[in-house]
Design goal:
Length: 638
Amino acid sequence: MGSASEDILLPGFVLKSEDGVYVLPSVMPSEDAFRIFFGKLFTYGARFSGLNYELFQKLLYDFNSIEDKTAKLRLADNIVAFSDARKALYRNVRIHDSGSKAEYMFEPVFLEVTTQVPVYGEPDEEGTAAIVNYRQVINSQQTKLNFDEFVADMWQDGVQFGINAQLVKNTIAHGQMGLVVIANERPAIPGIDAELQESCEGLHRDDSPSVNSSGKTDLRRFKNRFPQIKKGQRMMRKIPRTMGKWGFLVTGKPVEPELPKDLDMHQLAGPGTKVEASKDGEFIVAIADGFLSIDLESNRISVTEKIENKGGISAKTTGDLSLSVDDFVERGEVQEGRLVEGKHMHFFAPVYGTLLSNGGNIILEENLSAGAAKSPGGSITVKERASNSIIEAVDGRIELNYAESCTIIGREVIIDQGINCTILADSLTMGISEGCAIAAKSVKLKTSAARKHIETVITLLVPDPSGFHKQVEVLSKSLEEKKIAADAFDPSIAAAKSDPSFAKFLSLKNMVSSGKLKFSPEQEQNFNQSATKFSSALKALEKILAEKQSALLAHKKVYDALESLKANWGSDAAGRQCKITEVVGATIVQQMLSNMGLSYFSAMPAKDMTHTLRQHALAPQRIFSGHHGGVDWQYKAD
C-alpha cells in the first residue's frame, strides 16, 4: 500500500503533475465539490505543500471572484503525506462565539528522534569487545511548525475559513510564542435597498439655508427656491437594490445577508413625466420644460410650465438664486448684495445686486446701480441708467442708454452716453463720452469731452507687426529653398528626354493615355515593343518626376502657409479705426501695439486697468490730442 497522498483518488477537476497541483474550475460539477475533495484529502492524512491559501479560500468561499474560470489554476506544489509524528506537534485550537474567531497557542515544539546505540560484550584476550546487541535511545529535538500542515490540522479541528496566512507564517518563521488570533469571521455584508437618486440639482422647494461643499451653512442662498427642469431632463434615477454578500464563520459556515427592498418607478411618475429605461438604468424624465412639483404624500413627481416671480429677490424672499431654466422673469427689485445666476433673464425693476448669465441675454428695463451684470458670449441691455457697476459680455454685445462710473467689457459695445467709465471693446459705438478711458479696436464716437478736468483717453489697439515680420522672413526663406530644391530636378529630366527616339515614345504614350491616339493591331504591337525597349529609361524618368512632384508639394505647402499668414494679418488689421465727429473737451487718441487684445487689460485688477488706460503714449503713437476738432483715423497695415 502506498502513502496517503498516493492513495487519494483525484477528481477530474484536480490535476497533479511534476510541476504542481492544478485546479480546473470549468469542469467542476458543483461548488461543493471543492469542499468535499479538500475534506477527504485532509481526512486521509494528506496535505498540500506550497499551498496558495488565497486561491484555496476563493475556491471554497468566493468562487465568483475568480476572473478566468477557464484557466488552469496552480493551487500547490504537491500533495504529500501528513505523518502522525508531525500531527502530534499541533495543539488544539480555541474557537470563540460559535465561529467568530479562532485562537491558537504557539509554543516550542519537539520531535522525538530515535537512534540505535550498540551494546558491547566482554572483551576478548586481545581486549577487543564485540557488538552483541543494539539499544534504542530516544532524544527530543526542537523543530518548527509548517504553514501547510497548520492549514490541514486546523481544518480537522474545525477552522476552515479566514486564517490570517501572513500572520501565521511570520509567527512560525520568527519562533514567536503566545496566544494568537489566527482566524476571523467575515460578517455578512447587508444589501442596499433600491432607492431614488436625484439626477439633476435640487428637485424640491427648500427655503432653508444651503450648505456649501465644505459643509458650512450659506445664509445667502436658499437650498432650492424655484425647482425647475428642462424637457428630456432625467430627474430621478432608480438605484437598483444591491444584493448583500455572504459572510462566513471561521468554521466555514455561511452567514446569509438580509434581502434588500425594491421599488416601482411607474408608481412615482406623475403628470409631465415618464419612465425611461436605458442602458444607464431607469429614470423619471420630464416630457416638457417647467418647474418641478413633488407630492410628499403620494411621492409622485410632476412637471409644470413656466413661472414668473413678482416678489423680488432679497434675503427674506428668495436668497441668492441659481436658475437652470432658459428664461426667468423678475418683476420685483433685486436687493443689494443678491446674486442671480441663469441664462435668459428679464428684470422689470431696479437691480442693485449681481446678475450672472450662462451665455444668455440679460435685459434690465430700469436701472443697474452698484451691481454687476455678466454674460460671456451673450448680451446685456440696460434701458435706463447704469452707475457704479461692472458690465461684462466678453464675447457678446452690450447696449446701454446711460452709464456713469462703470467698468464695461464686451466684444460689441453701444452706449448713448458714458461718463467717467472704463470701456474695453472690440467695437465701440458711442454717442457722448465724458472723461472715459477707452481701449478698443474700432471706435465711432459722436462727441468727446472731458468731465471735471478728466479727459477722454482713447487707446486704439493695433497689431504688433514684429512677430509677423519674423514669420514672413522665415517662410520666405523656406519658400526659396523649396523652389531651388524643386528646380534641381530639371537638368536630370531634360537629360532623360534628350534621346529623340525616347522623346517620341513619350509623346506617343501621352497621346494614347489622353485618348487622342488609337493604334491598329500592328501599330499597337510596335508600340508595346518600344515600351519594352524603353522600360528602364521610363522607370528612371518616372522616379525623377515623382521626386520633383514631392518637392513641388513641399514648396506649395510653404507657399500656402505664407499666404494664409498674410491674409490673417490683413484681416486682423482691417477695421482698426477711430472716428470722432466732434471733440468739445480734452481728448487724447493714441495707439498701442498689442496682439493680446482685450484679455491683456481685462485680466488686470480694476484700478490697474483704469490706470493703464489713462497713461499717455509717446508722441509717435499719438493720433490726436486737443480740445476741439474731430478725428478720422484708419489703421494701415505695414
